[in-house]
Amino acid sequence: MEESWGEPTSLTVRCGFLAGAVMVTASGELDLDTVPELERRVAAALEAATACTSATVVVVDLTSVSYLDSSGLNMLVRCHELACRHHLALHVVASDRRVLRPIHATELQHVLLLYPTTAEALAPPTT
């Protein structure tokens, strides 16, 4: 008899262009099982932005993410570093405390460019 430890986690990822940025929108849970898919999609978005002369920002929208563990935090740091190597900005959109709490607990808010809304992440920088 097989024992089940619960339902498998799921993650949905959508990608596209919006307002001169490459958007990656995730919904579901970010954990060890689902992080590789999101990381692959963010890396592809960074490549697309590099190839597109008008896109200088990749926005990772986590507003519909309900869980973020340490593997998700590590993935965000790796994607931030990859964006820096491509001379791009990686904007992370998060407003749910279930996502913000681990980011703030690890002080990654000082590393990642965090925004509470997609509109703010897409807004041109103010000088």
Layout: helices, strands, pairs:
Blueprint: E1 11-18, E2 21-30, H1 35-51, E3 57-68, H2 70-85, E4 89-93, H3 97-105, E5 113-115, H4 118-122
Parallel strand pairs: 2-3, 3-4, 4-5
Antiparallel strand pairs: 1-2
Helix pairs in contact: 1-2
Describe this structure in words.
The structure is a single chain. With 127 residues, the chain is α/β, with parallel strands linked by helices. It has one domain: 2-Layer Sandwich (Transcription Regulator spoIIAA). Helix content is 37%, strand content 30%. It has 4 helices and 5 strands; from the N terminus they run E-E-H-E-H-E-H-E-H. Strands 1-2-3-4-5 form a 5-stranded mixed sheet. Helix 1 (35-51) links the parallel strand 2 and strand 3. Helix 1 runs parallel beside helix 2 (70-85). The longest helix is centred in the middle third of the chain and has 17 residues, at 35-51.
What's this, in brief?
The protein is an alpha/beta fold and 127 residues long.
CATH third-tier fold name: Transcription Regulator spoIIAA
Tally the structural domains.
1
CATH top level label: Alpha Beta
Number of strands: 5
Largest sheet: 5 strands, mixed
Order of helices and strands: EEHEHEHEH
Structural class: alpha/beta
- Estimate the strand proportion: 25-35%
Number of helices: 4
Helix content: 25-40%
CA-atom Rg in angstroms: 15 Å
The largest beta-sheet arranges its strands as: 1-2-3-4-5
Tell me which CATH architecture applies here: 2-Layer Sandwich
